[in-house]
Design brief:
By secondary structure, the chain is an alpha/beta fold. It has helices spanning 17-23, 27-35, 65-76, 86-90, 102-109, 142-153, 165-172, 177-181, 197-200, 217-226, 231-238, 246-256; strands at 6-11, 37-41, 53-59, 78-84, 133-135. It has 2 domains: 6-153, Rossmann fold (3-Layer(aba) Sandwich); 165-256, no CATH class. The protein is 38% helix and 11% strand.
């Protein structure tokens, strides 16, 4: 019996990008495997052992009845459950269907719609079971994952940033793309953690890491309108990758309910 903490890494409805980010730890992944007994990680190994687990990482949203049952089993057998990525923390890009007619989409998209066994809504893991901590991003930052797992080994709580991407831009000396180029950037309301990748490349932020701890979405919406975007286009900016996050969803709902 291994004395190392047992780690399970699970996938639900997602693209696997967050698990690939973990694999991209390279040499640090080997060090991680030396400290954890990786008992379940389909993306990396054929060794698939049942729980209990000391730590379970879960990627992906809940989109089927089978996944509802599966996440309850994982939660029952995990001392800590940590969600990784936008799909697991907010429902992901597939949560766009939450504001659409699912039955109509099914009929228009699939030649045999009766074969599709999906819930009407795509929901985050926290909508179904208690979650101990969340790592945001699309995909997650691999070093944030490593940091959270390292702190779990020490019995410490995660200390991930809740501030905005704008702070990362300032630290890197980036010129503000909203001020200098009039781009509709979501950085002011988006959680730091990506390293301001898009603004560093001269592009506007798309809110991949979801909202900050205290996002002023109304102020940003007013600024985007002042840049010349129509209300429906501002709503679409908030309905993106992390659009199912309550702060973003409520703002988009209000904008779409107004007349042009």
């Amino acid at each position: 019996m291994s004395e190392r903490p047992r780690l399970g890494i699970f996938k639900f409805t997602s693209c696997d990008g967050c698990q690939v980010s973990i694999l991209n730890l390279d040499a640090q992944l080997i060090e991680l495997a030396e400290r954890f007994d990786v008992a379940y990680f389909v993306e990396a190994s054929s060794r698939l052992e049942d729980g209990p687990y000391d730590v379970a990482l879960v990627e992906g949203s809940v989109s089927t009845e089978h996944e509802v049952e599966q996440i309850r089993r994982i939660r029952a057998g995990a001392a800590q459950l940590i969600t990784i990525g936008a799909c697991a923390t907010s429902g992901g890009i597939q949560a766009l269907r939450n504001v659409a007619n699912m039955a109509e989409w099914r009929e228009q998209t699939y030649p045999h719609p009766n074969w599709i066994d999906a819930l009407e809504k795509s929901t985050p893991i926290s909508a179904h079971v208690p979650v101990d901590s969340e790592i945001h991003g699309c995909p997650v930052d691999k070093l944030q994952v490593l940091r959270v797992l390292s702190r779990a080994l020490l019995g410490a709580t995660p200390d991930l940033p809740g501030s905005s991407v704008c702070l990362e831009c300032k630290r890197q000396g980036n010129v503000c793309v909203m001020v200098a180029r009039q781009m509709p950037c979501m950085g002011p309301v988006t959680r730091a953690g990506c390293g301001a990748i898009c603004p560093s490349m001269g592009r506007d932020c798309y809110a991949c890491f979801g909202p900050t701890d205290d996002p002023n979405v109304d102020a940003l919406a007013d600024q985007l309108l002042a840049l010349g975007l129509r209300r429906r286009n501002v709503a679409r900016r908030f309905r993106g990758i992390t659009g199912n996050e309550p702060a973003f969803r409520r703002l988009a709902d209000r904008l779409e309910n107004r007349d042009e």
